[in-house]
Every structure is written in structure tokens, then in C-alpha cells.
């Protein structure tokens, strides 16, 4: 106890003798890494430091001297990240700047091809380098039937003297597109009037009619007409006359119904036919009173349209005019020429 009592006043005396230095306990809540490094004299530079002598330490302790060497705090940094590389058979291997470790893989664009060994050349897989003998069973599975068909076609061309039939000529000069919709949840009785309404109209006019129609199925018909128009333009190349900006003289024709129509663009699309297809019946439930359930069978129906260009209607009008003109010519009365009456007899010849 005497030792402890003598030790405590010495500690207060020592702290009071050190002017300008505040006392910091070694283990408190505010104990941090920089303070610990300052107290312990941790040197992150890993250089040998000279230890102060005992006399200089006592002198600095009582008179508040400062040591020349200041302890430094060493902060450790995270190691640098190692970036990975692409595999040899990656499709992005050409964008990588580093050379490949595997020579058999794809090489970057900056690497010269002469540096590759000759025995590791890539196999040419182009169409002109393919072996036709390996694909013969797929390209020509029945050569005898192909030869017979070619001979038949040559004989037909010789007999016709190279002339095409009217149907073949129409198929080669005029375009058409057939489009069938998905199943609409409606009946034939409800969708039929809409199909008859748009038949014979221009595709843009029919879309305008369906847009302002009060029928519930008109919305589905409108979406199908948009899809059918896009298919006709992309696949068949129809309706591209307005894009070419070619100026044509308007022509007035008479339709089958007797209606007169003026056509300014022969390549514009119109609906030549529109019909309704009966589809399958679905299953629905009608919940009634007392827990009873009636089974309903809602019908499904689809819409099919045939799109053609206005030049087809012009050709059909010209054909009808030619037929009617031939009929009129056959019914005309012609005046017989004047001739002298000869070989007259007052009696009958029988």
C-alpha cells in the first residue's frame, strides 16, 4: 500500500511538470489507429530508427522537449485488381488488345497472320470452299426425278413456243398478298358484316372505317389490316409508288358494281376479297343462382383478306370493256349494198 501511495503522487507530479502536453490514456474509446501509431512509434517505411538515449528521454520528459523524428502512419492500400482475359474461341477476341495464350484460337486484329504457324491454319468454311459431294444427298436427293421434271419443262416450252398463258402472265406482272388473322372471340354473324364492309375498299379507307366503327370486333379487324398492309409492303413490295414519287395521269374506271372510281396511284393497295373463317369453340362458365353453373361455348372466328394493287382493277376494267365492245359489234345492223334484181319469175320455183 505504501508503494502504491508513493507511486500515485509521483504520477501527478510528472504530469504537472510536463507543460504544454495533454495526458492521453492508452486505452480509451477514442483510441484510434493514428494515435496508436503515434504512441508506439510505428514506422511504415520499414527503415531502422535510432533509439534515443536515457538522458535525452528524461530531459524531454521533464522539460517538454520534442524529438526530431516524427512517427509516420502507414496506410495499407488494396492490391491492384487483376483483369481476366477472354477465351480463345470467344467472339469478342478481336477487341482484346492483349495477345492470346492459345495460338489455335481467334487472333486479335493487331496481330499479324504471318506469325502463326503453318500447321494451325483455319479451315475455310465459305460457300465456295464447301465440299459439294457431302451435300449432294440434301441438295439433290432424287436426280432421276429432277432430270425428268427438267425434260418435261423443256418440252412444254417448246410446244408453247415460249409463250406464257394468261394466268402465268398475270402472276408475273401483278402482285398480291393473302393474310389470315388469329382467332377473334366473336361469331361469324358479327364479323361477317365487317368483312363485307371493307371488301373492295382501299386499305387506308378500310382502316379509317374500322377506326370509327362502333362494333366491338372492329378493333381486332383494324389491327389485322395494319399487319396485312405491313406484310404486303415488306414481303411483296406493294404500295411503293408513292415512295418513288412518280407522277401519273389519273384514270377513271368503272367497277363491277357500276361505281366510278378515279385512280391516281396504280400501286396503291386495295382489299380484293375478305371472308370469315369459323374457328373452334371455347369453354366458359355462367354462374347462376343456388350454386348452379351453366356451360357456355363462345365461338372463335378469323378474318382472311386478299390484298392487290390498283393496276389489277385497271386491267380487269380494260378486259370488261373489251368484252362488252366485242358484244356490241356483233349486234350492230349493217346496210347491205345496192344490187340489181335479176332472174325474177312470176311463179314459185317449187
UniProtKB/TrEMBL annotation:
GO terms for cellular component: large ribosomal subunit. Residues 50-59 have a biased composition (Polar residues). GO terms for molecular function: structural constituent of ribosome. Keywords: Ribonucleoprotein, Ribosomal protein. Residues 32-127 are annotated as: Disordered. Residues 36-49 have a biased composition (Basic and acidic residues). InterPro entries: Ribosomal_uL22, Ribosomal_uL22_bac/org-type, Ribosomal_uL22_sf. The keyword Ribonucleoprotein applies. One of its GO terms (biological process) is translation. CDD domains: Ribosomal_L22. PANTHER family: CHLOROPLAST 50S RIBOSOMAL PROTEIN L22-RELATED, LARGE RIBOSOMAL SUBUNIT PROTEIN UL22M. Belongs to the universal ribosomal protein uL22 family. This is Ribosomal protein L22/L17. It comes from Aspergillus bombycis.
Amino acid at each position: 500500500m505504501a508503494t502504491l501511495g508513493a507511486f500515485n503522487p509521483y504520477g501527478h507530479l510528472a504530469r504537472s511538470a510536463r507543460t504544454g502536453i495533454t495526458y492521453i490514456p492508452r486505452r480509451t474509446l477514442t483510441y484510434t489507429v493514428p494515435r496508436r501509431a503515434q504512441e508506439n512509434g510505428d514506422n511504415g517505411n520499414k527503415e531502422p530508427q535510432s533509439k534515443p538515449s536515457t538522458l535525452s528521454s528524461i530531459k524531454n520528459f521533464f522539460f517538454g522537449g520534442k524529438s526530431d523524428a516524427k512517427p509516420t502512419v502507414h496506410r495499407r492500400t488494396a492490391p491492384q485488381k487483376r483483369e481476366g482475359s477472354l477465351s480463345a474461341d470467344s467472339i469478342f477476341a478481336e477487341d482484346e488488345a492483349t495477345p492470346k495464350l492459345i495460338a489455335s484460337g481467334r487472333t486479335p486484329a493487331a496481330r499479324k497472320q504471318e506469325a502463326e504457324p503453318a500447321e494451325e491454319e483455319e479451315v475455310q468454311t465459305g460457300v465456295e470452299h464447301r465440299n459439294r459431294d457431302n451435300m449432294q444427298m440434301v441438295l439433290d436427293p432424287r436426280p432421276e426425278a429432277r432430270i425428268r421434271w427438267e425434260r418435261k419443262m423443256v418440252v412444254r416450252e417448246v410446244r408453247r413456243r415460249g409463250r406464257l398463258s394468261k394466268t402465268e402472265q398475270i402472276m408475273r406482272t401483278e402482285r398480291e398478298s393473302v393474310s389470315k388473322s388469329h382467332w377473334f372471340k366473336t361469331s361469324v354473324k358479327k364479323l361477317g358484316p365487317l368483312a363485307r364492309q371493307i371488301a373492295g375498299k382501299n386499305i387506308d379507307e378500310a382502316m379509317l372505317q374500322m377506326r370509327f366503327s362502333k362494333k366491338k370486333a372492329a378493333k381486332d379487324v383494324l389491327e389485322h389490316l395494319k399487319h396485312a398492309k405491313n406484310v404486303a409492303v415488306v414481303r411483296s413490295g406493294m404500295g411503293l409508288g408513292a415512295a418513288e414519287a412518280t407522277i401519273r395521269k389519273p384514270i377513271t374506271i368503272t367497277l363491277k358494281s357500276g361505281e366510278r372510281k378515279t385512280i391516281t396511284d396504280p400501286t396503291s393497295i386495295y382489299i380484293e376479297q375478305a371472308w370469315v373463317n369459323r374457328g373452334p369453340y371455347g369453354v366458359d362458365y355462367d354462374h347462376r343462382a343456388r350454386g348452379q353453373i351453366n356451360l357456355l361455348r363462345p365461338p372463335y372466328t378469323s378474318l382472311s383478306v386478299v390484298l392487290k394493287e390498283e393496276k389489277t382493277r385497271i386491267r380487269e376494267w380494260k378486259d370488261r370493256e373489251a368484252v362488252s365492245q366485242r358484244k356490241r359489234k356483233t349486234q350492230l345492223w349493217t346496210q347491205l349494198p345496192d344490187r340489181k334484181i335479176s332472174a325474177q319469175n312470176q311463179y314459185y320455183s317449187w
